Automatic annotation (TrEMBL), chain A:
Family under the similarity heading: Belongs to the binding-protein-dependent transport system permease family.
Alphabetical list of PROSITE patterns matching this protein: ABC_TM1
Transmembrane segments: 12-34, 68-94, 115-135, 147-166, 187-209, 243-265
Domain ABC transmembrane type-1 span(s) in chain numbering: 69-265
Name of the molecule in the record: Carbohydrate ABC transporter permease
Organism this protein belongs to: Arthrobacter silviterrae
A Pfam family of this chain: BPD_transp_1
Length: 279, 324
């Protein structure tokens, strides 16, 4: 199809401006991580006076980054797996069964998305403290507490997205499996889950990103024992010297796994969103 | 495996639907409830019970004195609300100011993010060489962990060693003094730009997903009829994206209005008045002054406001859909 001149001008301008807007902070992050300390303390420059990987070595010493990293990996992975399993069951029920309370459940769960975090931050903290004193289950300052908190953060959107995805899988498939003698759980595992793989991947990415990036609860619920990257990264600036080069290097390191994962799987993510949103 | 067994156990105690089936319950009626049970339990523990507790706390005089022994905090009724809504008092006027800043922040961030997302989605609608590259590039700010992106901005916005001032005053050679970006009135613009940088790729992603469901021949047919691109956008793209836009705008509104992370990471402890977004304000009001009852009351007010706005929005949207 022929493209008009104004359409082409629009396309080129939009893409150029948005590319600059997107790239500049990323460039600053990447290049500053390769600068010696004097470069980031003086006036800014777009290119380092000497390229060095020293910040990538020093950053592990300034704060216990490795331990924060480990905590983040464990918390995010476990929360993602649990949230995925729970969301699969719930979405299966919503998509395949007509039962009393179905609409109420879906709306209530989705509306928890609108709750301001500050409203239940302190009560949740107090509840965790009380569970500890009454049942001896330590939830504040442990990974378990963070895991169960984070898994519920991604749950509403995951259920909504997966239910949409399951709706797109023809019912005849699981009906046929049932005729062949599969129970409902086997039909779910054997038939629906394989067909819903892109949706599952999308939900898993979303859950992982939610946990990996959460700041508010991490800043209140963590102690030195279970500090995650979200809080740990800010500790560089509370040191007497602000090691901007190390902060930027650490930012690159904590971003790489998640950005690569997201970009590799973005097609699945878009497919999952399409199923959920464009109904 | 263990998840399945606990599901079944807790499901057995789930309530039966009353009078659903007079001939007796269908076999397996409990299955959907059992499937939902884990989700319900976690939502109850992490969202519902704390929310109810939070509402209850808002009626208490829960200050520093009572925090270790909060069961004994005296009930003050609506006192916390009175103080929060008395706009002549320091607490009330602080809240009102923060609310207005947040409203302006939300309108700017949601509006501009939507506009940028739409522009990018349309610009990348037709295939051309390098489309995949730009699509990937634009999604990076969304994929980055939120704090990593914001910290990079924080560094860029430093007065003496930041990239922004370097660009304007060294590269472009603007006259005058380098301004502070994270202190004073500029803090508002700083937090707006950073929030847009974070938010617009999400709008782009959703709109791009929505555009894929519009068949190409609709555009071709309208082009044969002589429709210009702008006309095609307003007559085809916009109406076809209605369902996506409806969800997208609401979600962006709620996320932006509740945004705590951006000001928290960007400003850290400095919290400039111009960037005093409401979640950040309530957090500081609770944790710096240790007056949790008052903080809870403010949170409840915020929740009520969001409920009312979302309710009106959905009502208007559904009515319009019925008419169409």
């Amino acid at each position: 199809m022929h493209e008009t001149t104004s359409a082409k001008a629009f396309r080129i301008t939009t893409i150029t401006l948005l590319s600059i807007f997107t790239i500049v902070p990323i460039w600053v992050m990447v290049i500053s991580g390769l600068k010696p300390l004097k470069d980031v303390q003086g006036a800014f420059s777009w290119w380092p006076s000497t390229l060095t990987i020293q910040p990538y070595i020093d950053m592990w010493q300034t704060v216990p980054l490795a331990s924060y990293f480990l905590n983040s990996v464990i918390v995010s992975s476990v929360a993602t797996v649990l949230s995925l399993i729970i969301a699969i069951f719930a979405s299966y029920a919503i998509s395949r069964y007509n039962f009393r309370g179905r609409t109420i459940f879906s709306t209530t769960v989705l509306s928890t998305q609108m709750l301001p975090g500050v409203l239940f931050l302190l009560p949740l903290f107090l509840i965790f403290v009380n569970i500890n004193t009454n049942f001896g289950l330590q939830l504040v300052g442990t990974r378990t507490g963070l895991i169960i908190t984070y898994l519920t953060f991604s749950l509403p959107f995951s259920i909504w997205m997966l239910a949409g995805y399951f709706d797109g899988i023809p019912r005849e498939l699981d009906e046929a499996a049932k005729v062949d003698g599969c129970g409902p759980m086997r039909a779910l595992i054997r038939v629906i889950l394989p067909a819903a793989r892109p949706g599952l991947v999308a939900v898993a990415i979303y859950s992982f990103m939610t946990s990996w990036g959460e700041v508010l609860f991490a800043s209140v619920m963590t102690t030195d024992a279970n500090r995650t990257l979200a809080v740990g990264l800010q500790l560089y600036s509370t040191q007497t010297n602000v090691y901007w080069n190390q902060i930027m290097a650490a930012s690159v390191v904590v971003s790489i796994p998640i950005v690569i994962g997201f970009l590799l799987l973005q097609k699945n993510f878009v497919a999952g969103l399409t199923a959920g949103a464009v109904k | 495996m263990s998840a399945t067994t606990t599901t079944r156990k807790s499901g057995a105690s789930a309530k039966a639907p009353r009078g659903e089936n007079r001939k007796g319950r269908r076999a397996g009626w409990w299955l959907p409830y059992a499937l939902l049970a884990p989700a319900v339990i976690f939502e109850l523990v992490i969202h519902v019970i704390p929310m109810v507790t939070g509402i209850w706390m808002s009626f208490l005089k829960l200050t520093k004195m009572f925090i270790s022994n909060w069961g004994n905090a005296p009930v003050t009724g609506l006192k916390n609300y009175q103080i929060a809504l008395d706009f002549n008092s320091a607490v009330g006027s602080g809240l009102l100011k923060s609310f207005l800043i947040t409203a302006a922040f939300t309108i700017l961030v949601v509006g501009i993010s939507w506009g940028l997302g739409m522009a990018a989605a349309v610009a990348l609608q037709k295939s051309f060489f390098g489309r995949g590259f730009f699509r990937t590039l634009f999604l990076i700010p969304y994929a980055l962990p939120m704090y990593a992106g914001v910290i990079a901005w924080k560094f860029m916005l430093q007065k003496d060693n930041g990239a922004i001032n370097h660009f304007f005053f060294d590269n472009l050679g603007l006259p005058g003094d380098r301004p502070f970006w994270l202190i004073g009135n500029n803090a508002f613009w700083a937090v707006v730009i950073v929030a847009i940088w974070r938010m617009w790729p999400f709008a782009f992603l959703m709109l791009m997903a929505g555009l894929q469901s519009i068949p190409n021949d609709v555009y071709e047919a309208s082009a044969v009829d002589g429709a210009k691109p702008l006309r095609q956008w307003s007559a085809i793209t916009l109406p076809m994206l209605r369902p996506v836009n409806m969800v997208l705008l609401l979600v962006m509104f709620l996320w932006t209005f509740n945004d705590f992370n951006t000001p928290f990471v960007l400003f850290g402890g400095s919290n400039p008045p111009a960037g005093d977004l409401i979640s950040f304000h309530i957090y500081n009001a609770s944790f710096l002054t240790w007056n949790f009852g008052s903080g809870a009351a403010m949170s409840v007010l915020l929740l009520l406001f969001l409920l009312v706005v979302s309710g009106i929005y959905l009502l208007i949207m559904n009515r319009r859909k019925d008419r169409a």
